[in-house]
Amino acid sequence: MKVVLGHHAKHQVVFVGPFGVGKTTALRAVSDIPVASMETASLEAAALGDQGKTTTTVGFDYGEWQFPDGARVGLYGVPGQERFNAMWDVLLPQSSAVVLWLYGNRAEALSEGRFWLDALARRKAVARLAVAITRLPPDTPDHELEPYRRLTGRYHPLAPVITADPRDPGSVMQAIMVALSTPFSAVHA
Amino acid sequence: MSRVIEPTGAEADAWAGTAARASVWTPTRESASTMAFMSTLRLHSTAWHWVDAPGQARWWVIDAGAYDDPTALTALTDDYDRMPWKPHVAFLAAQLSQLPRPSWTFFKPPVKSGLVFNWIRPHGGQDAFGVSARPHAATVPAGEAPPWRQGLLRLRRWPNMSRYGNTLELTVACSRLLAAPASYEQLLQGAVPAPLLDRLLADAHEAGMLQLEPLVHGKAAATPAARAPAPESIPGPTPERSIAPPAELPAGERSRWDLVKRLLGKFARR
User: Fold this and answer.
1) Is B135 within a domain?
2) B191 and B230 assigned to the same domain
3) What is the DSSP letter of A166?
4) Are residues B64 and B171 in the same domain?
5) A170 touches chain B (CB under 8 A)
6) A152/B contact by beta carbon, under 8 A
7) Which helix (H) or strand (E) covers residue B182, if one does?
8) Do B208 and B247 fall into the same domain?
9) Can you give the pLDDT at residue B15?
10) How many separate domains does chain A show?
């Protein structure tokens, strides 16, 4: 038997965002393989009362894209609570794309966004960023996204801000593609 | 496959001079698509000068369909990456996902002459144009073609792509418009559904996110510096850099573009 430590994926796509926003759901929506999850029952999750969520990620979630030539892309969902930030240090600096999932329907969404953008900037992970706002309809008027754009623009002038539904594979793919497709630009730390 | 000869001394001067502006090289001279493309070039008023060495050419025409061996194409792209001056490359292929470098221009044969001319114009052919920024018009007068159908376009920021049906080709088109100006016809070459593209551009125009750069004929050849600057809110690549990615970021950027192409191949609608 051949023992393999680590993995061969050349690229890594990482989903980050506050607790309960839908990172694990998004990963499951697009992964080619059954997602390996490190979830546990959580009173915190149950208290969130959002779409029957009763568990939380305590390690990381891992999914994968596989290509006919054998190439693989690793898809990671990291835990949203700060007490698990050791995982952020491991995964974010080497990521090819980062999707920051934020709530579109709660008052503290912008402060959560600021927290995460600071965390990404410290780990040099804002250059490949897309901000995906959940729980808003796809045809949300542009002006409703403006506060998120202003916030994100302080960290990365070209970072895309889009609405996205983590349950919809097409929507998740779109968020990843805009993160990957954003032209290089000077990034503020 | 011949290797790239980098221009030196007088050769380099000639390359940079007016005469060399229309120097063209192709490694696939015998292919039907290349010959058709070359015939179209001859319809343009520019005096094209065909050269045998790729390092002497400002313009390259490459037919992906003429390569049975993919390693030969890889060698060519490696040669391109090593060149101190980056030629403008027309890449003829059946699928956008075959495009090996994002700075190359994709053409799907059979190519229409208008698309070829639009490709030539921004780079200073004899019918070069001057470009100036124009404040965007708030509305499109009834009966007139939308303003984005003429001239060059550039996006100031990402639109909310989710409004347009999660079409990956549209995402790639927007990425291109964020990096450098392009014409409407060039965008359509990327297999973008025209109605979706029109809707996105109309929304972006109305929101002031679309920068229009009109074509002005009969003026002196425009240099990259004479082009409209990127909006102040976007400290991104300069026009010159947008044609050829800056040298300090090639490995990561190329690798990322490779991934985008793979995802297009895997997930894009056919």
Assistant:
1) no
2) yes
3) T
4) no
5) yes
6) no
7) strand B182-183
8) yes
9) 43
10) 1
| CATH number of the domain bearing residue A117 | 3.40.50.300
Tens digit of each residue's pLDDT (9 = 90 or more) over B47-94: 788 888 888 888 899 999 888 887 888 888 888 888 877 888 999 998
What whole-number distance in Å separates Cα of residue B267 and Cα of residue B110?
A: 25
Q: Between chains, do A184 and B253 touch, taking CB under 8 Å as contact?
A: yes
**Structurally, how many domains does chain B consist of?**
2
Amino acid at B5: I
Q: Does some domain include residue B171?
A: yes
A151 pLDDT more than 90: yes
- Mean confidence (pLDDT) of chain B: 71
Smallest CA–CA distance, residue A137 to chain B, in Å, is: 9
- Whether B22 and B92 map to the same domain: the answer is yes
Cβ–Cβ contact B255 with A under 8 A = yes
Chain B residues with beta carbon closer than 8 angstroms to that of A186: 235-236
Per CB-CB distance under 8 Å, the chain B contacts of A97 are 256
* Domain hosting residue A31, numbered range: 11-181
Range scoring the smallest mean pLDDT among B86-90, B98-102, B158-162, B228-232 = B228-232
Question: Of A156, A142, A145, A153, whose CA–CA distance to A187 is shortest?
Answer: A156
Q: CA–CA separation, B211 vs B198, rounded Å?
A: 15
- Give the global pTM: 0.64
Q: What is the pLDDT of residue B117?
A: 76
Same domain (yes/no): B68, B25: yes
Rounded distance between C-alpha atoms, residue B86 and residue B80, angstroms: 7
Whether B110 and B168 share a structural domain: no
Is the pLDDT at B9 greater than 50? The verdict is no
Instruction: Write down the pLDDT at residue B257.
Output: 81
- What per-residue confidence (pLDDT) applies to B160? 92
> Count of CB contacts below 8 A, A vs B?
107
How far is Cα of residue B176 from the mean position of the Cα atoms in its chain? 9
Rounded Cα distance, A122 and A109, in Å: 20
Asked if A67 is an interface residue toward chain B (Cβ–Cβ < 8 A), one would say yes
**Which of A139, A176, A182 is facing B175, going by the closest CB pair?**
A182
Please report, for residues A40, A72, A164, the alpha-carbon distance to residue A167 in angstroms, rounded to integers and kept in the order given.
20, 23, 9
Decide if A91 is inside a domain. Answer: yes
Residue B192 in domain: yes
| CA of B115 vs chain A CAs: smallest distance (Å) | 24
- Please check whether residue B139 touches A, CB under 8 A: no
The chain A residue lying nearest B248, using CA atoms, is A184
Q: Name the range with the highest mean pLDDT among A99-103, B20-24, B246-250.
A: A99-103
Is residue A1 in a domain?
no
At residue B258, the pLDDT reads: 83
Reduce the DSSP state of residue B136 to 3 states and report it. Answer: coil
User: What residues make up the domain containing B194?
Assistant: 147-267
